[in-house]
Amino acid sequence: MIRVSGFVFPVVALTIAVYMAVEQATGNYRPETGLYMYGLATPVAAFAVIQLLIEIRTLVSGRAEFKNDAPAHTEIDLTPLWRVSLFVGSAAAAILLLPVLGYILSFAAFLASGFLMMGLRRPLVIVALVAGTVLFVHLMFVSWLETPLPAGVLGGLV
Amino acid sequence: MPDLLIDGLVLMLGQIWLIPIGVFLGICFGAMPGLSASNSLAILLPVLVVLSPEQGLILGVAIYTGAEMGNSFPAITLRMPGTASSAVSAIEGFPLMQRGEGARALGVCILASVIGAVIGGAASLAAAPLISSVALNFSPVEITIIIIFGIAVIAVISHGGLIKGLMAGTLGLLLATVGTDPVYGQFRGTLGLIDLYDGLTVIAALVGLLGFSEVLTYIERTSGGERVDHGRSKDVIDYRGMVRGFRDVLARPVEWIRSSLIGVVLGAIPGAGASVTSFIAYQQSLSFASEERKKLFGRGSIDGLIAADCSNNSMVGGSLVPLLTLGIPGSASMAVLLAVMSYHGLAVGPQLFSMNGDIAYAVLWSQFAGALFIFLLGTLLAFVAYRAARIQTGIIVPIIALFCLIGGFAKSGAVFDMGVMVVFGVIGYVMKKHDYPVIALLLGLILGGMFEANFFRGMLMGFNSVSIFFERPIAQVLWALLVVTFVVPPLFRYLLRSRRNVHEGQRA
């Protein structure tokens, strides 16, 4: 199986290192801070490049083995990755809607979608869990710990 | 120092009501598969930071202690380890459960955990003030090198290899520079976003890396509707069986002394973790067992079970030592407590015992109270706590994810930090898939500020010359230890491999 995802972290690390170094070089920064920033960005970039080369070598040698020994057809199961991506997407949507809808509605929507994604199908159970959890969040975080979660459209009611 | 010892004890006794709550939460969280002590602490971080510093730390240590025992309950009764660290408990405890000796196995787990916690507490209470007084002689130069050492150790022992570990650690240090330069006040790496002017919120990153990433890993691994069926076992749990387990532990003092000491020593090594600790203690127990007892390993060995559970809990005390004396967390859970300390402005590092000594001692004393409560609550809850493992993952996962979202928000009150939490959650998920050590990234992120501040102070001491970092005697010793850390493990592996090849050659 081709593990392209192995490239993700080194590419992200390399991008961050290059960005920080370029920002330091092109910005109006004091030279004293340059030593520190380059001193950190350089090893990050170096390790990322080494790891990328290792991943490429693994990919190439894996492909060679694959050609020799592989069955006629190989399936890659992407369902779990789709599930993860959907879940991250639903979390992102909850965050974006939070200032507008408020914590009660956006958390309720997030939980309901989460339960459905995780395979729960009984509506009464889902409603009970959503209501119970949101109530717990309200009592524990908003009322007791005074966490300033945005009330959104329900502002004034909660 | 004796005054601080007593002040700490009095302070702890004033907050003793938190310890049974923490132990209870820890046992319940620990009993849920996929939730380790560090995940639990990350999820509860919004609560820990709102309390006073001593309350937050005492509660955190109690949760940690409870979770290290609680994760053995489903391991023994359902062959479902709460975490990798309780895998040994599953290997040795479940066969006992199948033979109708489940109560005995739980009794062994409980008392071994208590003894481990007491020995870990005693060791940390004795060692921490001594190390702290030595560490007070550390200048910014030595503190800088110690932080490098901490990250290097994690990189060396990480499963993914040295390059991945070093990349993660140095990336953490680099990400810690995002925000305002502490010396000249210039913005760095902010992408023009006003929300990043104060830097990345460490708590949001921590919750994402430890909590949300675990949620994503869980989602990938399961289909959600599962309730794991572990076949038949003779479900007999009674107090008489537990008392028999207690007697088994008391009859094996060598076992629990050795395992506890292994836990304390390995707990002090950043990144070693409970899973490594329990396996090493288990392996040592096997090595020293008589021929007759060796046959029982893998089939319900009491010695193996004691080794795993003792070392898991003594590790708590061991990991407190570098946290309280040097400001370097010995484990991911300690990283959470470090975040609590930083949040409250406690003197992180060698000054903690001189500036907030009563709090430091209160935390150390709380381990003994924690040991008492894990005995009491563990005995009461053993009958029911493992049932937490039967809760459908489809119910647990979205709720934990929601708590992670709130955790990202709680410190700054900014919705932006929820996004930071999710981003770090995805980063942590990718890292775990490919064996990058998340704790290295976390350590770099948490200690990055301290590292930069001490680096610049060191440079000032050396009149802007880096040679200062190599001239001081303590610094030279630390560099030598660093070289040993890099050289010894591969050398050891090479020697082992050579010896194995020689033996195989002789046999052929």
* Gyration radius from CA atoms of chain A, angstroms: 24 Å
Number of helices, counting only DSSP H or I runs of 4 residues or more of chain B = 24
What is the mean pLDDT of chain A?
84
Which whole number gives the mean pLDDT of chain B?
85
Distance between the termini of chain A: 51 Å
Query: Any low-confidence stretches of chain B, pLDDT <50, length ≥5?
Result: 224-234
Based on Cα principal axes, name the global outline of chain A. Answer: flat
Series of H and E elements of chain B: HHHHHHHHHHEEHHHHHHHHHHHHHH
What structural class is derived from the secondary structure elements of chain B? mainly alpha
Largest sheet of chain A: none
Question: Can you walk through the features of this model?
Answer:
Chain A has helices at residues 8-26, 31-69, 79-101, 103-117, 123-144. Chain A is mostly helical and 158 residues long. Chain A starts with 7 loop residues before the first helix and ends in a 14-residue tail after the last helix. Chain B has helices at 2-14, 18-31, 37-43, 45-50, 53-70, 72-78, 87-98, 102-135, 140-157, 162-175, 202-221, 239-250, 253-267, 273-288, 291-294, 302-326, 332-343, 352-355, 357-381, 393-410, 415-433, 438-461, 468-471, 473-507; strands at residues 179-180, 187-188. A two-stranded antiparallel ribbon of chain B has the order 1-2. In chain B, helix 7 packs antiparallel against helix 16.
